[in-house]
Amino acid sequence: MSKTQVAKGSCLCGAVKFLAKTMNPDIIVCHCKMCRKWTGGLLMSVFCGTDVRFTGEENIKVFDSSQWAERGFCNNCGSGLFYRLKGNQEYHIPVSLFEHCKGVIFKEQLFIDKKPEFYSFSNDTLNMTEAEILAKYSSPTT
Ligand SMILES: [Zn+2]
Ligand SMILES: [Zn+2]
């Protein structure tokens, strides 16, 4: 795991702002169907642990997306704000919401076998298929 940093970000309209105290600069891309539906593209996020402080919290709407996770978005501009695990309340936050993306590294691609044919991310990353993810985690991660 790379050295974490303190990082600030916001949604598109600015109604929701946040401070992540331990943002890990390793970018994880998820090509799963849910992430692609949610974003309209794919999810490119960084792991932020549990210490994320929000302002404008009244503008956050949370969508219960599966048994194990929920997804937050701004109810004014629609920006996807986070993917949060229900069990331990850990956050994955889309990297482009941050003010600066200093030192971030494109590290990993999840559900690589679900990636559509029409784009290819040719960076040298750690790639995992659905079967590999299911084998690694006792419960699915989408
Ligand atoms: Zn907004
Ligand atoms: Zn996903």
Q: Provide the list of bound ligands, each named once.
A: zinc ion
**Which fold does the CATH topology refer to?**
Metal Binding Protein, Guanine Nucleotide Exchange Factor, Chain A
Distance between the termini: 21 Å
**Which CATH architecture?**
Beta Complex
In N-to-C order, the SSE pattern is EEEHEEEEEEEEH
Outline the fold blueprint:
Blueprint: E1 5-10, E2 17-23, E3 26-30, H1 33-39, E4 43-49, E5 52-55, E6 60-64, E7 69-74, E8 80-85, E9 91-94, E10 105-110, E11 126-128, H2 130-136
Parallel strand pairs: 3-10, 10-11
Antiparallel strand pairs: 1-2, 2-5, 3-4, 4-9, 6-7, 7-8, 8-9
The site of one zinc ion has 9 residues, from loops.
Features:
binds zinc ion, three-stranded antiparallel β-sheet, eight-stranded mixed β-sheet, 42% strand, Metal Binding Protein, Guanine Nucleotide Exchange Factor, Chain A, 142 residues, 11 strands, 10% helix, mainly beta
